[in-house]
Design a protein that fits this description.
Elements (H helix, E strand, L loop, with lengths): L1 H20 L3 H15 L2 H8 L5 H12 L5 H12 L6 H15 L2 E8 L5 H15 L2 E8 L6 E6 L2 E6 H13 L1
Parallel strand pairs: 1-2
Antiparallel strand pairs: 1-3, 3-4
Helix pairs in contact: 1-2, 1-6, 2-6, 4-5
Length: about 180
């Protein structure tokens, strides 16, 4: 997975800079979401991988599927992605683009795992603390994971804050082994 993200990152950063400079972040967000959906379809993957289909034919097909969303910049982006054999990275490019967009807007998406159901008051307190610590507006989704035993585990992009009992037990066991 890390390799896919490594390959996708330069594309996402280039598209983000282009979209920001041309004030088309929302349009690119829609285009990349559509391309990610297309790239996640096995039929589309089969067409792209088919040696009988030229890069121009694949690009024409994708432009047709995008319809009105296919500006000259989008066509150039698709040509580059297809020529470099990076079609399968499009879902990762879309995800990274959204992360860059959110960071630019001062927003971060957090995934919170809790050993038990979290009340609205607890969630508000936790997100307020994260807002203050990270100096960003945090939006969160919450899931219950009984394997944590107690506490929470927060994931925001590459940042993981493990304040769970399971995490503390694992850390303790690791320190005792060394």
């Amino acid at each position: 997975m890390a390799e896919l993200i490594t390959v996708a990152r330069p594309y996402a950063e280039a598209v983000f800079r282009l979209a920001k400079d041309s004030n088309t972040l929302a349009q690119w967000s829609d285009v990349l979401a559509n391309l990610a959906t297309i790239a996640g379809n096995q039929d589309a993957l089969d067409v792209v991988a088919n040696p009988k289909c030229s890069a121009a034919q694949v690009q024409e097909l994708l432009v047709g599927l995008l319809g009105a969303g296919a500006s000259a910049e989008v066509k150039n982006f698709l040509a580059t992605v297809i020529e470099n054999g990076r079609f399968t990275t499009l879902p990762a490019v879309a995800t990274l683009f959204e992360e860059l967009k959110a960071a630019d807007e001062g927003v971060a998406q957090a995934h919170i795992e809790s050993a038990f159901a979290v009340t609205d008051a607890q969630l508000a307190e936790l997100t307020a603390t994260l807002n203050q610590q990270l100096k960003r507006k945090i939006t969160a989704d919450v899931s219950v994971n009984p394997d944590l035993i107690g506490g929470v585990k927060v994931t925001i992009g590459d940042l993981v804050i493990d304040a769970s009992v399971r995490g503390k037990l694992t850390a303790l066991a690791t320190s005792l082994k060394s």
